[in-house]
Amino acid sequence: LEIDKPVREYLPELKFKNEYTNDHVTLLDMMCHRTGLPRHDFSWYGSTASRSELLKRIEFLEPAYELREKYQYNNFMFMAQGVVIEKLTGKSWEDNLKTRILEPLAMLNTNVSVIDMEKEEDRSLAYNTIKEEIIKLPYRNIDAIGPAGSINSCARDMANWLITWINDGKFKDQQIIPAGFRLQAMTAQISPGGGLPGEENPDLHMSGYGLAWGMNSYRGHYRVEHGGGIDGFSSSTCFFPSDSIGIFVVSNQGTPTSSIRNFIADRMLGLPYRNWGKTQLENRMKADSMATTGQNMDSLRRKVGTTPSHDLESYIGNFENKGYGIAKIFTENDTLWADYNEAGERTKTYLEHYHYDVFKLRSTDEKTANNGASKLNFKTDIRGEIVSFEVQLEPAVDDIVFEKMDPVLELTTADLNKYVGNYDLNGLNVKVYIRGSNTLMVLVPGQPDYELVPVEEHLFNLKIADGYSVKFDLSDEGKVTQLSFLQPNGVFTASRK
């Protein structure tokens, strides 16, 4: 495996939206997050899509920069590297990890799924703090995007992992990580961003990102580090290669991980005491204060006294974005609800009218108003029909557009037969016929054959022509008498011959 070769030589099914990226992106680019793709985490977080389905979504994710222009962390790229491993070995990423890493390093209490973790008697639970109240959280299953962070481990096992990196890639005299790759991995390949050191900690500076490792100068010492986080858990794994020191810290409540890591590092390196916890606490209190005392921009921007342009039923349906999957909008108890990436559970997300055709996403779990809630902005076509909504899911690119899907009506050949025939359109013969077993087609002289997609009773949309429909009219006896082309420039009627 050569990490400088285009990845399509190993995984041709991996596609990006940018053709130049398709031709040139390498595994090295993916490892150091310089593909041009921002995070797009809402595409996979909570999704029930499989690993192969998530891989296909990458093609439709909008890049924010060109290849190798900027560092942007992206979990999809770690997942895709796992798929490369699967493709080359014929075994799952999970099996490869166990046989190549976990077993040789005697990481006997490490697994790669919360399904396995839940079977363990001695395991940590997950928590979150909301307004000083500690709340237990369910485990978040991220098996599909597993190579990006589904490993569950403990301090004893992670010590062996760190020893291997410190010891030139060897564990008990066995070479686990190639020495050349180890050196390349902990050498900066791209800068995560510029800027001078802060006044409070002027000896923290010169950050870089290598191959799935970040590095910086920590109080005069070269530090290699990577963090991880998922619902209720936060971890930091770091080592100082020149000092032969490794530190692993994990918290099941999220916030104190980095301050504990720095405290341990200072003691191990013999550095003067610095109150990292105080700094982190002050930053948190400042953020909390701004959240409670700052201006409510949600309220300031809202146009009071407006109403939706349609009745609630007009907003329901399935809306799809090829890079993000399907969001379902439905009504229950006179309320609009949104079902999107709920990890297979019943949705707790409902829509609260904000202004005009904009709705805020709210949760039944919320105890106070969420002023920063995401908003769905519904759009209409020239006919006044709701056809899409836009929502900000990735700040680095434009709002993500979910287009309304045509309702799927299951019609048999017998159902379609009543529409088959010839129709007179001002002297032109319009032909309606069935292709294959049950696909209704319409042919207008001088135009291609159009596939008709049933959306309502006797109403069909042209599959490849947005905004164009065909409506069939029936007599009292149930026989088709005419069809009408519903187009942006008018309605054109053809009588059945």
What does this structure look like?
This protein is an alpha+beta fold and 497 residues long. The protein has 3 domains: 7-284, Beta-lactamase; 303-404, Beta Barrel (Lipocalin), CATH 2.40.128; 413-496, Lipocalin (Beta Barrel). It has 12 helices and 25 strands. Strands 12-11-10-17-16-15-14-13 form an 8-stranded antiparallel sheet, with no helix packed on it. Strand 13 (349-355) and strand 14 (358-363) form a beta hairpin. Helix 3 (51-57) packs across helix 4 (75-89). The longest helix is centred in the middle third of the chain and has 18 residues, at 276-293.
Average per-residue pLDDT, rounded, comes to 93
The CATH first-level class of the largest domain comes to Alpha Beta
Sum up the overall morphology in one term. elongated
Fraction in beta strands = 25-35%
The chain-level structural class is alpha+beta
CATH superfamily heading of the largest domain: DD-peptidase/beta-lactamase superfamily
- Compute the gyration radius: what is it? 28 Å
Widest sheet: strand order?
12-11-10-17-16-15-14-13
Number of helices: 12
**Helical content class:** 10-25%
The CATH level-2 architecture of the largest domain is identified as 3-Layer(aba) Sandwich
Low-confidence stretches: none
Described by strand count, sense and barrel closure, the largest sheet is: 8 strands, antiparallel
Say how many strands there are: 25
